[in-house]
Amino acid sequence: MTRVAVVAGGGGHTGPAVALRLAAGGFDVALLGSGFTSADKTVRRVEEYGRQCITVRAELTDARSVAVAFGRVRTALSSPAVLVTCVGPEPLPDGLPEDESADEQRYTAVRRALRPAFVCCQAGAGRLLRHRWGRIIIVVAEPADAAENTWRTTGPVLDGLIGFTRSAALELARSGTTVNLVAPADRADDSRAPALRAAGDDSAGSYADGVAHVTEFLVDERAVGITGQAIRVAAARADVPLLRER
User: Fold this and answer.
1) From CA 52, how far away is CA 77, in angstroms rounded?
2) pLDDT band with cut points at 50, 70 and 90 for residue 167
3) How far, in whole angstroms, is CA 121 from its chain's centroid?
4) What span, in angstroms and rounded, lies between the C-alpha atoms of 246 and 235?
5) Neighbours of 180 (CB within 10 A)
6) Contact 14, 211 (CB under 8 A)
7) Of 48, 140, 183, 185, whose Cβ has the fewest other Cβ atoms within 10 Å?
8) What is the pLDDT of residues 99-115, one digit of tens each?
9) What does the alpha-carbon distance between residue 188 and residue 153 come to, in Å, rounded to a whole number?
10) What is the rounded distance in angstroms from the CA atom of residue 227 to the CA atom of residue 181?
11) 82-87 and 230-233: which strand pairing?
């Protein structure tokens, strides 16, 4: 039986890392997004695993665009059983003043970051329900820099996604579909947080690599009881070798 996974967004590093791990696990993969910076490379690497990979252009904040994209996935491959949506706030200029204009910019950035998760879940849930088995994983992209405004925007995005994940998990529980969130570790709580390693990195120990590992576990049958959870992933410290490298 063909298994299909949709990876929406995260075109730079996290999305491709997840797509490759899913392909290695036997999934055909559809990449959804408005731009594909490394799509050709990802498609070739997925095909090396003997799986199919297609790219479908869609504006992830537009419900109609995403619905059409899912239709194309179903036609080209099959109805997806796994949906991974990578979201994250747009970078804001550092040093924004504490005024109404700056608050409006942050609000707009938060709203735009949250909408793809809602739109993709809404479009994908109906197709997942046909399988009576499904996995929805929302991934918060690692901030491209450690600027104060970037992290101040990421916080509200994460809070909103935690609430959305719990609500969606409860709503879809009876259908056999799990919903989970994967996000960067908080720098204040974890000294291994991603800011210590460059964001544009999908090598072993990077945030993208960690997300791919977690995704691989969450789509496994053994993770059927894990839903509504927010899983925090930290990149390995750049100055500390991984155990498997010693």
Assistant:
1) 8
2) very high
3) 12
4) 17
5) 22
6) yes
7) 48
8) 555 667 777 778 888 99
9) 15
10) 9
11) unpaired
CA-angle at 166, arms to 25 and 8, nearest 5°: 45
AA identity, residue 214 = V
Q: What is the arrangement of strands in the sheet containing 82-87, beginning at the earlier edge strand?
A: 53-57, 27-33, 3-8, 82-87, 134-140, 177-184, 230-233
Q: What is the pTM of this model?
A: 0.84
pLDDT tens-place string over residues 58-85: 999 999 999 999 999 999 999 999 999 9
Cα separation values, 97 from 92, 94, 115, Å: 12, 9, 26
Query: Residue 103's Cα: distance from chain center in Å?
Result: 26
For 226: left if phi > 0, alpha if psi spans -120 to 50, otherwise beta; the answer is beta
142 backbone dihedrals φ, ψ, rounded to 5°:
-70, 130
Q: 226, 217, 112, 103: which is closest to 160 by C-alpha?
A: 112
Q: Would you say how long the chain is, in residues?
A: 246
Task: Give the residue carrying structure tokens 């797509």.
Answer: 19
C-alpha count within 13 angstroms, C-beta hemisphere, residue 98:
2
